[in-house]
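User: My collaborator sent over this chain with a note saying "see what the structure looks like." That's all I know about it. Can you take a look?
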Amino acid sequence: MDDNYRAAVDAAAIFSETDLSGRITYVNEQFCSISGYGREELLGANHRILNSGLHEPAFFDGMWRALVAGKVWKGEICNRAKDGSLYWVDSTMVPLIDPTSGRVRKYVSIRFDVTEKRQLLHTLQWRVGHDVLTGLPNRAYLSDLLNQALEFSRKEGIALAVCMLDLDGFKAVNDGYGHACGDLLLVEVATRLKGILRGGDAVARLSGDEFVLILRDVPDAAQLQLALERVLKAIAAPYTIRDREVSVSASIGVTLFPLDNEDADTLVRHADQALYVAKQRGRNRYHLFDVSLDREVKATHQTVARVRQALSKGELCLHYQPKVNMRSGQILGFEALLRWRHPLKGVVTPGDFLPLVEQTDLIVEIGEWVIEQAMAQMQRWQEAGHAWPVSVNIAARHFHRGDFVERLERLLERHASVPAHMLDLEIVESVAIENIQRVSQCLEACQQLGVQFSLDDFGTGYSSLSYLKRLRTRTIKIDKSFVRDILHDQDDLALTQAVISLATAFGRQVIAEGLETVEHGQVLMGLGCDIAQGYGIARPMPPQAVIDWVAGYVQPLQWRAPSAD
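Assistant: Without extra context I'll predict from the sequence alone. Here is the result:
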């Protein structure tokens, strides 16, 4: 090589020459400086003297294949210095060709030290996945750790616990001693957690004073309890931070895989939900996520969403069940009962879907839709020459709305041709006595509009007698649970008789629900109740069937009043 060229390269780079067998024939001063070897130690030595052991044999095989073929090879190599330390060089290896023979006669290597760049890159990569303050994995790295743990648990068929941990009293430490003390406390907490976890377990810091623990291979509930109690005890031990004694405790939310068979993000969310419960129950404790309760919540949300869709798609409808004066045979009106024309299940009764909807505002939308439909149906019957009142059930959440009366008034105005007294709103006794003052005021306001009210399921509440006088409802409906067994249960017979007598004493009309047979009707009439509804009279029917049913209805002979002589 030209001396001037070599001098330039020596000044700029780590330079060496190697013969065809791999023995070093020349090194410059920079080569000796970075490797720690003297020139006399390197000359004649094989290049493997610098092997770090970090590269696979295939790495060097590929390099030598390129060089032997007369090609330039470029890449980063980790070498080991004489003192055992590692350093990285960006290498360009060039085979020198003999111009007369056309064969490779030696190799020259030009290297640049990239150790600092590598360390910086490693630091940056580490920071991407780690919390700088505590050195623990952060939220980004937690996902990888948890997915790896889940994959192992699935493969080996073993359980693991995902725990969300939050410090009780951490805010007081920050506020009282400053954020610097708070940071030192977090570092100590991280140290304690790392110190008590087993080799296969992991701990990560999410943010603030929130940590996530991954406890692998949890054989049973007893072992989990021991592990969690160990964590709680370790966290609760006093801390000395800048000569101050500090005390905090921990609350932990836990979910177990595969009992909670979800993905990594969902497991962390479930653990967080359980942590909230632990906090609510007093702190310095743990709470296990309730998978069955979560399934119920999901089922409720799915049902509510599907019922909302059914309402918007016109799948809901009303059927009508007649109320009859058994003694005279007169049709007094109908109760509107909700049905769902499910595209797959057929006609679904409200007991199968309304209980899950009643605790949401969807029940208000459904309630107003039912009133609207009932008013429109009464208007159609009225135009056909039939003045049949209709009763509608009102849910507690709907009735207790502050704007219930105003919204009801707007519904009545949309069907002004139907007298307001034709609409009868039924509220169950338990709703009526829940807030007697508010209910009484609402009843009076609705009655000023002309609307009638009935007290449904009477006799099932705890305060029926004391509140009856204050609830100015026109009608009392005897709960079907009493009526059903009056033929053979003396207690139900006595209760039914007492309700009828009480209602009569207060001047209220009495309707018996759930009438099943002619014999039930005879007993009820004997007790002084002439009005009833139930399968013994007619099942709920679609509106188009009502007029024909009324035209063909004939009361049983046993119910007919004896004609006068």
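A starting point for your reply to your collaborator: The mean pLDDT is 87.
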